[in-house]
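This part of the workshop introduces the protein records we will be handling. To make this concrete, we reproduce a full record directly below:
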Amino acid sequence: MAVALVLDAALAINGLVPERAALFPNATAFLDSLAAEPTVIAGFASGIALMLLLLLPIHHVYRTREVRLLQERERLAAHNAKLVRQAASDGLLGIANRREFERVFKLEWLRAARERQPLSLLMIDIDCFKCFNDTYGHQAGDTCLREVAKVLRAAAARPGDLVARYGGEEMALLIPHTGMEGALRMAERIHTMLEDRALPFSASPVAKHVTVSIGVSSMLPVRHANRSVLISQADEGLYAAKEGGRNRTEAVPNLRLIAPEEAAPLRSASRAQGA
């Protein structure tokens, strides 16, 4: 109140606010009367100082509480982001789970259709994985899955590429803005990296190390087309790779949706049995 009185009177004295429009019309006269009484002025100033001394701790408490609220909000946001990541990832392999794959696949399909860009999918299955578990045990099997997932993440280095666990020992690699040629190069890179990694598998009928079979499909999506066709084509390629001897890649493009320049080979094998 004291501060308001002083400001109001000061404005009225300087003519900035008409005296009739002032909050305290008699403030000027009141201050004139105070000028004749130094003791009263000193008491009035002391009151203002006391008021300020009381307001400063309150302001400090308010600022402290505001900082704490902001820190708590940031902590909750980080915790929620962690929960979202956990809900979207496979707990064992640390890659996207099936639900996250379906979500991203839908978004990438629509974006590829809008931008008229190809979208490729690799379906990857560890060869003779049941035999691996029977030979080395399930804990070693889990380690094998994690090592293969690491290889896939290293091979798919672009930010937009998605590595996901599709089910069991089967994994998926979704590659936006990539046609058949690029997808086949990615598959070959995976084979080579696994060969270099040389995870022991003495009981394998294919090689002395862990290998994978890969089915590849690549399309130029159409917005209202059934996107599951891309998955079924990649699955068909995976089945053909297994039937062809495993440790190989088979590609089955869809000619109705694939880009014209990509549509030459109906099926290509990138690696022979035992390579």
About this structure: The radius of gyration is 36 Å. The chain has a mean pLDDT of 80. The domain at 98-262 is CATH 3.30.70.270 (Alpha-Beta Plaits).
